[in-house]
Design a protein that fits this description.
The chain is of the alpha/beta class. Helices cover 40% and strands 17% of the residues.
Length: 245
């Protein structure tokens, strides 16, 4: 039996929902696949096995798989978004082992001629772009940071505000909650539409928010301005444009 290995790679100050939403979807895929001909192994990956990482929201997560312990060739690499000074430091420092891990995974897949999905949600796309793994691919990110993604000249930023974009083996999601939609799309790629439908029903995913203000196409100008300031859109653009010069 060939095991499908899915790895979610976390770091300091990641967004909790960027991980929890997709992880829930992948957990159900793992459960549905248990004992079958196509088992799924789900890995939460960080620098070292047993290390604890705190999310931006203050939740502590225990990593059970370190970079050195991960399968040599993950079938799915999933990078969440984050924010704050630690996120900016990671984005700036391409010598961080995080990037070495990503590049070694991609190189292993190429050498083995193995299909591999390289995925991100929210500003996780900036980390993939920084690693050079989105060069030549159409992709998306959180609506407030599309201009930051456009600072990477070889990256093709998809128009509008899609929940996710699939371009060959690259799958990128919009802001935070988009990760659930994206994860279901990844399941469909891996196991087909019916399994994706089963998981969607299992988690009762039928969004019906009380307000229609989920992206700039439907939000009021006042709300758009307020949120852009609150989440530091201009500050991140300035920081990234500074160290990319």
């Amino acid at each position: 039996m060939k095991t499908t290995n899915i790895g979610i790679v976390i770091y300091d100050d990641f967004d909790a929902l960027d991980v929890a939403g997709p992880n829930q979807v992948f957990y159900f895929l793992q459960s549905l696949s248990g004992g079958g001909p196509q088992p799924v192994a789900l890995h939460l990956i960080g620098r070292k096995k047993g290390e604890k990482f705190k999310s931006l929201e203050g939740l502590t997560w225990l990593v059970e798989t370190g970079y050195k312990d991960a399968p040599d060739c993950l079938d799915v690499i999933f990078i969440p978004g984050g924010f704050g000074k630690k996120f900016q430091a990671l984005l700036k420092n391409t010598e961080d082992p995080f990037y070495g891990f990503l590049k070694s995974q991609v190189a292993s897949a190429k050498k083995a001629k193995k299909p591999q999905l390289i995925c991100s949600v929210c500003v996780g796309a900036l980390l993939l772009a920084r690693a050079g793994l989105l060069d030549g691919y159409s992709c998306t990110t959180h609506w407030a940071f599309k201009n930051v993604l456009s600072l990477f000249p070889k990256v093709i930023v998809a128009p509008g505000y899609p929940r996710y974009v699939i371009d060959q083996n690259r799958v990128t999601g919009g802001g935070i909650s988009s990760g659930i939609d994206e994860a279901l799309a990844i399941v469909e790629i891996l196991r087909g539409a019916e399994v994706a439908r089963q998981i969607q029903l299992s988690i009762q995913y039928a969004p019906n928010p009380p307000q229609q203000s989920g992206d700039p196409s439907v939000a009021s100008a006042a709300t758009l301005h307020t949120v852009s300031v609150q989440i530091g859109a201009a500050e991140l653009y300035e920081a990234v444009s500074g160290f990319l010069k």
